[in-house]
Amino acid sequence: MRVLLTGSSGWLGSALAPRLRHLGHEVIGLDPVPSAETQVVGSIADRDLVLRTVSENGIEAIIHSGALHKPDIERYQNTDFIVTNVQGTLNLLDAAVASGVQRFVFTSTTSLMISQAIRDGFKGGARKAAWLTEEMSPEPRNIYGVSKLSAEHLCRLHHLQHGLPVVVLRTARFFPEADDLAYAIEQSDANTKANELLFRRLTVEDAAEAHVAALEKAPSLGFDIFIISAPTPFRPDDCAELIADAPAVVARCFPDYPRLYARKGWTMFSSIDRVYDPSRARERLGFVCKTGFADVLRALEAEA
Ligand SMILES: NC(=O)c1ccc[n+]([C@@H]2O[C@H](COP(=O)([O-])OP(=O)(O)OC[C@H]3O[C@@H](n4cnc5c(N)ncnc54)[C@H](O)[C@@H]3O)[C@@H](O)[C@H]2O)c1
After folding, report:
1. Residue of the CA atom closest to atom 38 of ligand 1
2. How many CA atoms lie within 13 A of 252 on its CB side?
3. Distance 123 CA to ligand 1 centre (A)
4. Fewer CB near the terminus (10 Å): N or C of the chain?
């Protein structure tokens, strides 16, 4: 397929473009930042460029990952988020409809599901962790989340009005840099990321693979939204104990973890305030992340 990939110079784009090519797709990358994966240097906010690029290249599918994202909040104005993430998405959806594109995959974020109340609950003594599924009604707490949720609504509207098949992937974190000091384990970023694989993280390779699955399934799904995160060992019944004593829950799920962590000098978060449940993606998209917490433990065991 001839696939337009936005955000092709970014962290996800750089992993996804080669993967798509390996599968035999022809990838046209669009990004304002030049890179080896980017053939069209420009912005999705440039409506004429987007319409032209989609029609002139005979694009059959669009994977829309280009965006201003959470770390950009400190550098950009609210209006920049609306122009890039909302108007930019609308331009791509309109171009898809105008050119008869039959598959559209939108990279969204689990971040939009975290309301101020959920955030405050963690700091202020929530009694149980939030169990987050696609059923909840998001109330994003920042412009990033608001712009991504607005873009999701535009996707839904284009499916409704034009029958455009769209799959929205609310991906959990896969960025390499450290973030969220409330959780971070100061001594070890690897320790933090390992812990996060239990409830709020995936590898960039798995993020890329989820887009491949969505590309394949879009026509049969019509419209759907999926949380994409490493499989969680937790259950809704664990939510109270996750706040009170997360290490006890993890030890119940993985009896070897205390020994392996102790040997490495790692620690578990004392409290976990949310769990992203990726089971809908397993059931309807047929997608499960390859790498999870069990793999970390296997690697720690092998280090001996
Ligand atoms: N990294 C994460 O942990 C994470 C988590 C959830 C969702 N996401 C989403 O995944 C997608 C990719 O994120 P990433 O981590 O690769 O970020 P990134 O910043 O590395 O990549 C984003 C890319 O989008 C490009 N971009 C910015 N403005 C653009 C515009 N106007 N037109 C076209 N492209 C533009 C940037 O130049 C960049 O190359 C984003 O949509 C992001 O919101 C990321």
Report:
1. 10
2. 11
3. 28
4. C
- C-alpha of residue 11 to centroid of ligand 1, in Å: 7
Q: Which helix (H) or strand (E) segment is 196 a member of?
A: helix 189-196
218 pLDDT exceeds 80?
Answer: yes
| Cβ 106 vs Cβ 152: under 8 Å | yes
Can you give the pTM of this predicted structure? 0.96
What spacing in Å lies between the alpha carbon of 148 and ligand 1's midpoint?
11
DSSP3 helix / strand / coil % (the chain, rounded to 5) = 50, 15, 35
* Residue 3, beta-bridge partner list: 27, 61
CB proximity list for 242: less than 8 A, separation 6 or greater: 128, 129, 234, 249, 271, 272, 273, 275
Task: Report d(CA 253, CA 63) in Å as an integer.
Answer: 36
Q: pLDDT exceeding 90 applies to what percent of the chain? A: 90
CB atoms within 10 A of CB 154: 18
45 lines ligand 1 (CB under 6 A): yes
Whether 217 is in the pocket of ligand 1, judged by its Cβ within 6 Å, is no
| SS3 label, residue 94 | helix
Q: Which CATH class is domain 2-302?
A: alpha beta
Backbone CA torsion sign across 67, 73, 74, 77: positive
The CB of 109 under 6 Å from ligand 1? The reply is yes
Nearest to 272 by CA among 131, 173, 138: 131
Ligand 1 pocket mutation, candidates 12, 16, 112, 225, criterion most atoms within 8 A of CB? 12
pLDDT digits over 82-96, tens only?
999 999 999 999 999
The residue type of 62 is I
Taking the centre of ligand 1 as the mean of its atom positions, its distance from the CA of residue 251, in whole angstroms, is 35
Average predicted confidence (pLDDT) for the chain: 95
